[in-house]
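fyi for ur records
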Amino acid sequence: MSYSFEMYNDQIQKSRRQELRKNQTEAENTLWQAIRDRKIKNLKFYRQYSIGPYILDFFCPEIRLGIELDGEQHKNNLEYDQERKNFLKDKDIKVIRFWNNEVLDGLQDVLKIITKNAKF
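which gave:
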């Protein structure tokens, strides 16, 4: 499958991605420290990576794996989340989701799930 690279990290969203990186949540920071610098299967993850109109919390292009962390606000965005999920699935991107408290209270379990999903 070939991928259109113009839809990745669109310059129009650059300032929004930078803002999200500067204002990351405690859960995002905790997970980032655990997966950055190729700490999982020597894979490179990026923070706040945009694909089309959506920005993923974390993304590994090599294996097309996105990671999303959700807080309480996501309980009210079910329709948006479903549209986003469908868009990314159409682009052959698998997304795994965790609640913020899962990362903060059970980081090792979250890392095991990420590692299990980190397949080529």
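The first helix runs from residue 14 to 22. thats all i got for now
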